[in-house]
Amino acid sequence: MAFGVEQAKRWMSIANDHIQQQKQYLTELDQAIGDGDHGLNMARGFQEVVEKIASANYEDLGSLFKDISMTLIAKVGGASGPLYGTAFLRMSLALAGKKEADDKELIAALEAALDGIKARGKANVGEKTMVDVWEPVMEFLREKESLQVKEAALLAKEKMEHTKELEAKKGRAAYLGKRSVGHIDPGSASSHLLFAALAEALEG
Amino acid sequence: MAFGVEQAKRWMSIANDHIQQQKQYLTELDQAIGDGDHGLNMARGFQEVVEKIASANYEDLGSLFKDISMTLIAKVGGASGPLYGTAFLRMSLALAGKKEADDKELIAALEAALDGIKARGKANVGEKTMVDVWEPVMEFLREKESLQVKEAALLAKEKMEHTKELEAKKGRAAYLGKRSVGHIDPGSASSHLLFAALAEALEG
Amino acid sequence: MKKLINDPNHVVNDMLEGMAAAYPNRLRRLPGTNVIVRHDAPVKGKVGVVSGGGSGHEPAHAGYVGKGMLDAAVCGEVFTSPTPDQVLEAIKAVDSGKGVLLIIKNYTGDVMNFEMAAELAEAEGINVAKVIVNDDVAVEDSTFTTGRRGIAGTVFVHKIAGALAERGASLEEVEAAAKKVVQNVRSMGMALTPCTVPAAGKPGFELGENEIEVGIGIHGEPGIEKTAIKTADEIAETLLNKILDDMKLEKGDRVAVMINGLGATPLMELYIVNKKVSEMLEEKQIRIHETFVGEYMTSLEMAGCSISLLKLDDSLIELLDAPADTIALKK
Amino acid sequence: MKKLINDPNHVVNDMLEGMAAAYPNRLRRLPGTNVIVRHDAPVKGKVGVVSGGGSGHEPAHAGYVGKGMLDAAVCGEVFTSPTPDQVLEAIKAVDSGKGVLLIIKNYTGDVMNFEMAAELAEAEGINVAKVIVNDDVAVEDSTFTTGRRGIAGTVFVHKIAGALAERGASLEEVEAAAKKVVQNVRSMGMALTPCTVPAAGKPGFELGENEIEVGIGIHGEPGIEKTAIKTADEIAETLLNKILDDMKLEKGDRVAVMINGLGATPLMELYIVNKKVSEMLEEKQIRIHETFVGEYMTSLEMAGCSISLLKLDDSLIELLDAPADTIALKK
Ligand SMILES: Nc1ncnc2c1ncn2[C@@H]1O[C@H](COP(=O)(O)OP(=O)(O)O)[C@@H](O)[C@H]1O
Ligand SMILES: Nc1ncnc2c1ncn2[C@@H]1O[C@H](COP(=O)(O)OP(=O)(O)O)[C@@H](O)[C@H]1O
Ligand SMILES: [Mg+2]
Ligand SMILES: [Mg+2]
Ligand SMILES: [Mg+2]
Ligand SMILES: [Mg+2]
């Protein structure tokens, strides 16, 4: 499966569509156990991303993901801004100079993104954050060694739903303690949207 | 009809009963076109009045009404405090030294009370204040030259209801302009209670 | 009704105790009264400046007691004018022999109670002057009616009369300065929500999710007109235009601006209102000497705001800029 | 949602314009940013002190920009941490060569964004130190979790770090003083009503007519526990006892007290809360050096309050008492 600048742009564009559509839903998830801005943050950031990358021409994936990263860092704010910003920054480093990435290279780049999220947020699996989606999804892809993006998206969905059962230990929901149980983590939901968009961009 | 210290005390006690019962109603009237404290003000003041005069012995009506007046002035506040306070102060002057008042004397004292209200508040008939009850009631009693208190109380009720149709020119309701039409003036309502209590104290 | 209170009938007392406990070096509560005075009252050689009214307008009026503003504030029950005996205690506590100015907001109750107190004080040989503030342009002005209300513009009267009194001016001078402020200050307010007098237990009026009251006072009473909700810009325009119609300012005139929150309005929204107000004044080439944004004269937990404009000249500017050291206004 | 706003998506910009227009002699907005700096920034020979966070906490943080407190405040979207590029602009604008202290409230987002900015600033050769405020005892403290939140006690950090910076102290000294405040300040809050983020359009949670949230933060999120409404005395007791459990004060210890309104609470109610707080402290023979009652760190139009206690020693007292000239805090 070829993953070049065009595919990457399509990924972002589909991701943005999902996020704009689910803006209210993401915000409601965040109102339940956070501060009710996750949908607003993500919608603001990804809208800027698609506008930014639409007009520009990119020689390689690295420079495209650099722009995506910088835009997210500067526009999202909150916790998700630095986290997703760092994720895409790590992807841009992993894909620097590459016009196209094969399965292995893209998986490695996504792996770097996960490492970035964990380095920035210092969260581990089970703490009710986006890591609870990213980590099992990357485990799956790492094992498969091929970009089974549809299965990855389904797994992301399942893991997102699983965050309902967790008690938050990191992020804003941690302040709620046990009251955080029973609600889906908003960042896990937006992470699911990213994996779903990737699947659609590559296979849809 | 004999009107002595006992009758006067009974008047206040019945008036207080009415006011405590109608506290909420008076406050609601004041919420509609004023600031929602008339029932609270009157209830606070008359409660103090009955407590104050219950224990004391009075040689004459003048000293009783002086105490009533001073208590109202110090406890009611708002517009109604100085108005009723001045009314009873004028009564105390009119009845100074008298152990009992006959019809003519009591009517003259009530007339003095009305003069006090008008001097203090500078309101005339038709401006949607307690004067719209007091003035016609006193006209009636003045004409009859006898204490037809039941009829006076009925007239007070009618005149109180009539204030509904007036546009306020004095007092807090004046700020509402035309929006004050359609509501009974709270001070007229409390004035009606005073005349009703007087009738009950003397005839009930 | 959800409030941070104990007994609805004792809110004023509880508040005054909490206030006196918070500022022992600034304020004293006169024992057995609801009067708050400067800790160093009476101040020698200084005209006493006394204001007050119903409670529920905090920080007005006790928040303005201190150097350069009020010597005493008389605190009535919630939205109820204080009684003459209380006002008299305040007058006596602050009079140093130079006389006392009463700053009264134009409400029948306040005017009558303060007047009765003035009469009692005069009878005790104290020189008393009165100034009645009626800055609210929402209400039609007329000598045949109660006339205009006093609202947030009153704080400018406190500031300027207080500053002049602090300099040792005579009662006549302080009174004249206060009257000059009254002649030059105009205000108008609006509400997004009503408020609830604790002892009444329910709101003074009701407003739909898309309604506002325009021309509101500060006692939880309905305004002049109920209208549909508008943008902050439109609301600022409505209020400011009504004020400007009444004031007739000219290019180059200098003003002080107050954007006053009524109790529950986030400061954020007051700044948003000020954005439009400052733009409009700039467009009209009216010079803003100073802007006050915050809660100066509230109406319990009412959401909404009022705008006040004070037209300034050199002497008013000097007094407005003079030092003040009170809880709610420091310079 | 009824608010005095124009477009819900532009409230922060509108607010900052209105604020800059109100205080042209005090503040400047850095062009193209949501950063408010002292009009005279960078101040020569002085460590820069920068704070910030999401908007909606007004007067925090821009209200504390000025002599003796902050050099800059970085204003994020409502309840959303500002981004690193904005924080970087603030750092660059206030650095006079002596370095910059970042005062960060302990939220994952704030910490990460400010840290990223610090890294960028260091890369540009600016010396940056950070202090993370976590005064909220409602949340269990643990190194395995996010830890405690920073709430109203942060204002004491601004005051004391700012006072020391104003005296020309080094970055290390200013940082140490700020950390000392963090170690000695504890807070806890409660809410009577939720609040509504303008762009979200509906309240963050719901509360029945007889319910309150205890252990609330300042971002419209639910608290630790929902309970039945209680009296002001009981609520004060709950909050203060939780704070005292954590602080372990002794007889004769000196404290500063802050009774902070969350946005829609009438000042009257805050004084009523202070009545109980001052009584309890007196009973425990803890000496109150100063009491702050008002809105210092709000949560839009949330009704409720927080209580903060800062344990003082001579050096903290000196810095707390030092002059400050900001919009929201003057000394
Ligand atoms: N330390 C962390 N590590 C990983 N993800 C985190 C961390 N903290 C928060 N998150 C994610 O960020 C999401 C919240 O993002 P958002 O609402 O935009 O920011 P904020 O919490 O600052 O308001 C959470 O749902 C969670 O998935
Ligand atoms: N100038 C006046 N003359 C006569 N009565 C008046 C005058 N102003 C007000 N009142 C009466 O006082 C009543 C209101 O009393 P109250 O609510 O206790 O005081 P306030 O208006 O100060 O809150 C009005 O309903 C009216 O009858
Ligand atoms: Mg959030
Ligand atoms: Mg009334
Ligand atoms: Mg009243
Ligand atoms: Mg946020």
Automatic annotation (TrEMBL), chains A, B:
Q: How does it assemble?
A: Homodimer. The dihydroxyacetone kinase complex is composed of a homodimer of DhaM, a homodimer of DhaK and the subunit DhaL.
Q: Which InterPro entries match?
A: DhaK_L_YcgS (IPR012737), DhaL_dom (IPR004007), DhaL_dom_sf (IPR036117), Dihydroxyacetone_Kinase (IPR050861)
* Coiled-coil region list: none
Function field: ADP-binding subunit of the dihydroxyacetone kinase, which is responsible for the phosphoenolpyruvate (PEP)-dependent phosphorylation of dihydroxyacetone. DhaL-ADP is converted to DhaL-ATP via a phosphoryl group transfer from DhaM and transmits it to dihydroxyacetone binds to DhaK.
Could you list this entry's UniProt keywords, alphabetically sorted: Glycerol metabolism, Kinase, Transferase
Enzyme's top EC category: transferase
What is the protein's species of origin? Parageobacillus caldoxylosilyticus NBRC 107762
Pathway assignment: Polyol metabolism; glycerol degradation
Name listed for the protein in its UniProt record? phosphoenolpyruvate--glycerone phosphotransferase
* Pfam families (alphabetical): Dak2
Q: What biological-process terms (Gene Ontology) are attached?
A: glycerol catabolic process
The GO terms describing molecular function are:
glycerone kinase activity; phosphoenolpyruvate-glycerone phosphotransferase activity
User: What does the record give as the reaction this protein catalyses?
Assistant: dihydroxyacetone + phosphoenolpyruvate = dihydroxyacetone phosphate + pyruvate
**Known EC number(s)?**
2.7.1.121
GO cellular component term, pick one: cytosol
TrEMBL record, chains C, D:
Q: Which GO terms describe its cellular component?
A: cytosol
Enzyme Commission identifier(s)? 2.7.1.121
Record's keyword annotation contains Ligase: no
**What is the uppermost EC class here?**
transferase
| A GO MF term | phosphoenolpyruvate-glycerone phosphotransferase activity
Q: What pathway does this protein act in?
A: Polyol metabolism; glycerol degradation
Q: Which domain of life is it from?
A: Bacteria
Q: Name one Pfam family in it.
A: Dak1
Could you tell me the Gene Ontology terms of the biological process aspect for this record? glycerol catabolic process
Keywords recorded for this protein, A-Z: Glycerol metabolism, Kinase, Transferase
Q: Give me the reactions it catalyses.
A: dihydroxyacetone + phosphoenolpyruvate = dihydroxyacetone phosphate + pyruvate
Transferase as UniProt keyword: yes
Residues making up the signal peptide according to the UniProt record: none
The DhaK domain extends over 7-329
PANTHER family (alphabetical): TRIOKINASE/FMN CYCLASE, TRIOKINASE_FMN CYCLASE
Functionally, this protein is described as follows: Dihydroxyacetone binding subunit of the dihydroxyacetone kinase, which is responsible for the phosphoenolpyruvate (PEP)-dependent phosphorylation of dihydroxyacetone via a phosphoryl group transfer from DhaL-ATP.
Q: How does it assemble?
A: Homodimer. The dihydroxyacetone kinase complex is composed of a homodimer of DhaM, a homodimer of DhaK and the subunit DhaL.
Which NCBIfam families does this entry report, sorted A to Z?
dhaK1, PRK14479.1
UniProt-recorded name of the protein? phosphoenolpyruvate--glycerone phosphotransferase
Q: Which organism is it from?
A: Parageobacillus caldoxylosilyticus NBRC 107762
Name the gene behind this protein: dhaK
